[in-house]
Amino acid sequence: MMSTPNRRVRPGRVWSRRARLGVACLGLVALAAAGCSSASESSPNQGKPVNAKDLVLVQSIRSLSNPYHAEWAKGGEMFAASVGMPVQTLTNEGDSQQQLNQIKSVLSSGKTVVLNADPNTTSDTQAIVRAVQDAGGFVVTQWNKPGELTPAQVGNSWVAHIGFDGNTGGYQTAKALFAGMNNTGGIIALQGILDDVPAKERFAGLQKALSETPGVQLLDQQTAHWTRNEAFQVTQTLLAKHAGQVKGVWAANDDMALGAIEALRAVGLAGKVPIVGASDAVPEALQDIQAGNTGYLATVSTDAYWQGGAGLALAYQAATGKFDVATAPPASRSFYGKEFLVTKANVADFLKTPTPTDLAPDFANPQARNVGPLQ
Amino acid sequence: VSTAVTTRATTGSPAAVPLGRRVLDAGPVLALVLLVVVFSLVTSRFFTLANAGSIANQAAILLVLATGATFVILLGGVDLSIEGVMATSSLVTVLLAANDRNGNHLGYFAVLVGTAVGALFGLVNGVLHTRMKIPSFMVTLGTGAIGIGIATVLFGGQPPRLRDDGLRAWGTERIAGMPRLVIIAVAVLLLGYLIQKFTRIGRYILVIGGDEQIARLAGVSVARYKLYAFVLAGTASGLAGAMASTQLGVGDVQVGSGQMFATITAVVVGGTALTGGRGGVPQTLVGVLLISVLANGLILVGIDPSIQRSVQGVVIVAAIAATAWTQRHRLRVIK
Predict the structure, then answer these.
(1) Interface of B with A (CB under 8 A)
(2) Residue A44: CB partners within 8 Å, gap ≥ 6?
């Protein structure tokens, strides 16, 4: 504390600090320039097969703090191991700008990037695929995509986009829920973030099932933003609002369903009110479905291991020339992946962690679960 | 000398408080009453015992967080590490109590350790802020990220489930019709109030927030009391993380998602100035109730989910504007 004023007036100090700042700025400029030049140098070889040793495998996902993406990452690692390469996992904690920056950093490393990405939002997809296109890499994207944009429009670097039809999952889980309620009574619905495409599709699936089942009424629908603690609070409020009338709970994903179960437990209804989650198949949901004591009836699995492994495999095959992007039909570059309804009957299959042997056929043919072109 | 200065600056005799200021202090309370009246008129489901219970339950964790955060905001600082601290505390608590991942079964001691982890984060925040003179928002933003990082490592890809029935009961069961978490929250609130009102820590924090220079000239050890404020806030976040885990039954990195913003909003809506030196724990209770009643009421009334957030925002801005209007000449800094 005593020495602070002295330090401020010593001229030599000020100069050297300024000098250091200058050097630092120069360094930054140089780095930026290096980044740009290496990115533009590699652009001419767009879409051409690349020697495997010049490739770097990368997966970009939200975080490792949820089971779904953790499984995705493991799937990617299994594929990488199958071709004897390491894989770099980039996590962005839901920060779109960070996701793009991380991808741009690996793109400027000089090697050809093979990327399997889960873009945070629909608008991020375009920025990511264009960055990869400019740098001459290969990218497969999943889930979020602007409706009108197709891989073919952007170029051969955007190998493919894999989506999942939320309508089916929402519909199937709703049907499973209604069956558990003998097709009568009131339900509440917990939605995801309202402008997310999967949230809209899954809710549309629920509404279709409702229109076919006149005995079941939708008492209320609210968003819980995909999260467990919000679902807990919203469910608690809805249970107070519709006291005694809630005979079933439909949630657009498992995390929200698991939050709702705790809210039911707090009022002594856990196990008495059936509940479903329309996506994710997280381990806790699977365990609950197997145990059968919490009322959890069904979820939907997109098989995160497959998404991580086969997505990367598809990009890798494009990079090495096995999958010829230039001549591939649109239906194999923009397609729905297969979803599985998980109920007590088949839950045991989904509780097992797949082995590399289990996934080997999908690594060899990443299109095996192509169930049709994206709508 | 220092005692005389602080006493005059903080307490003052009630008679000396002008009427205008008393009306202004009542602003958030009036807003709360108004909300309750409006919701009660619009829907018969609002003003019921069952719904009061669910509001109390939803307010419990927020109340603990906001009570702790009040001390930091009274200083004119801010604690952005809430969600990170909750995440680490949540995982530490669950992994030390009976769970499905390892053989630990420390019971209540696990909650104690989880809370202590929060206190440790607070200590680190306080030391970095006071000794290294880093602004509190930067320090706490960083330590919050560290908290998320530690929690993610402990998480290991899937949430450990809490298997201790005794602890689970604290999150889900009631004593005499009162959710147990609410009892904890009320205890924390009382403790916070006692600290603020009757200890040197509480009063010096107000003085420092009012004018740090004067506090320093009066011989108050500013750094030490700032440190205490951050430790109080960290401890509260740690406890809140453990509470959330007993409620949800898992150790989860996302256990505090959205709580940081709600906490700061609650403290400020209650009437504690972001510039420091004004407000306190009782105001925070009002702020927490305002936020919880609003979220609950909008659902009961049946406002369309897609515009609920906007309506919440409008009401909060209106409440703050109403509170700040009469006091605008007294707000020295608005940044």
Answers:
(1) 45, 48, 50-51, 53-54, 57-58, 148, 151-152, 155-159, 161, 171-173, 179, 244, 247-250, 252-259, 295-296, 299-300, 302, 305-306, 308
(2) A136
Contacts of A67 in chain B (CB under 8 A): 157-159
Residue of B nearest to A219 (CA): B302
B15 residue type, one letter: A
What are the CA-CA distances from residue A77 to residues A61, A230, B61 (Å)?
A: 13, 33, 39
Compare CB distances from A228 to B151, B161, B248 and report the shortest one's residue. Answer: B248
What whole-number distance in Å separates Cα of residue B69 and Cα of residue B118? Answer: 13
- Give the Cα-Cα-Cα angle B97, B102, B106 (nearest 5 degrees): 25
In what order do the strands lie in the sheet containing A275-277? A216-223, A185-191, A246-251, A275-277, A296-301, A340-342
pLDDT at B262 over 70: yes
Q: Could you tell me if B246 and B114 are in contact, meaning their C-beta atoms sit under 8 angstroms apart?
A: no
B297 neighbourhood in chain A, CB within 8 Å: none
Kindly write down the DSSP assignment for every residue of B187-237, as one continuous string: HHHHHHHHHHHHSHHHHHHHHHHH-HHHHHHTT--HHHHHHHHHHHHHHHH
* A240:B172 CB<8 A: no
DSSP state of A5: H
Q: How far is CA A275 from the centre of its chain?
A: 23
Are B155 and A238 within 8 A, CB to CB?
Answer: no
pLDDT at residue A8 greater than cutoff 50 = no
Quickly tell me which residue has 């939803």 as its tokens. B58
Q: CA nearest A290: which of A247, A349, A227, A232? A: A349
Q: Name the residue among B111, B57, B68 with its Cα closest to residue B263.
A: B68
A121 DSSP 8-state letter: S
Beta-carbon neighbour count of residue A83 at 10 Å? 15
β-sheet bridge partners, residue A37: none
pTM across the whole model:
0.81
Over residues A12-52, the pLDDT tens digits come to 344 455 555 555 555 555 444 444 434 433 444 555 678 88
Amino acid letter, A314: L
